[in-house]
Amino acid sequence: MIQGSVRKRPAQAVSRTEPLVNSIQIRIYAMKTGKELKPGTVIRLENDPWLVQKAEFTKSGRNSAIMKTKLKNLLTGYKTEIVYSADDKLDDVILDRKEATLSFISGDTYTFMDTTDYTMYELNAEDIESVLPFVEEGMTDVCEAVFFEDRLVSVELPTTIVRQVDYTEGSARGDTSGKVMKPAKLKNGTELSVADFIEIGDMIEIDTREGGSYKGRAK
């Protein structure tokens, strides 16, 4: 089992278990601030576990940093959007994490396989909205599957992945510095900017954090 990175908790904070309305127990570990929220995080609101499906950090001026979130109640399936201040304090729910790979895609259903016991788990496209632009048939990335009460709730891609460029215009300038950028498309339709010297069929490295960005030609 892969363990996620653990923040040093405040001295006064303790791990605790608290009951939910349907008798499910959730474990709370210290606190998270609004600016630390990211897709895949599960927080407790009004004694229910809520999955962060989308998190967008915005800082427009002094003391005005906010995190816009899209949340899903893991007990009822209800969805909502909440805006938090960067320093808001929230209960962080302990989650289990395992290694998994994509097995196949059928419509909007994505099936992942536990690499240890080969159990299959399904997620809808909306459950992996934050990483969906870089999920494609045939990918071999070992992902981090996030579980709550033995149920897969989200998947996190490695920080760096390699994908093939399906289409891009030819280089008009002959630039090899990597500073001149142009649009390109991956085989699943995702568009991103790449260096001008990149050609159709090239394998490129992509940083999956904060929406994904081109890093360079894969070695």
From TrEMBL:
**Function description:** Involved in peptide bond synthesis. Stimulates efficient translation and peptide-bond synthesis on native or reconstituted 70S ribosomes in vitro. Probably functions indirectly by altering the affinity of the ribosome for aminoacyl-tRNA, thus increasing their reactivity as acceptors for peptidyl transferase.
What InterPro entries does the annotation carry?
Elong-fact-P_C, NA-bd_OB-fold, Rib_uL2_dom2, Transl_elong_fac_P/YeiP, Transl_elong_KOW-like, Transl_elong_P/YeiP_cen, Transl_elongation_fac_P, Translation_prot_SH3-like_sf
A Gene Ontology biological process noted in the UniProt record is: peptide biosynthetic process
- Pathway membership, UniProt: Protein biosynthesis; polypeptide chain elongation
Domain named Translation elongation factor P/YeiP central: residues: 97-153
Organism encoding this protein: Pseudomonas savastanoi pv. glycinea (Pseudomonas syringae pv. glycinea)
Which keywords does this Swiss-Prot/TrEMBL entry list? Cytoplasm, Elongation factor, Protein biosynthesis
Q: Which GO terms describe its cellular component?
A: cytosol
Compartments it resides in: Cytoplasm
The UniProt record lists the Elongation factor P C-terminal domain at 161-217
Q: Which HAMAP family match?
A: EF_P (MF_00141)
Annotated gene: efp
Cited NCBIfam families: PRK00529.1
Q: What name does UniProt use for this protein?
A: Elongation factor P
GO molecular function list = translation elongation factor activity
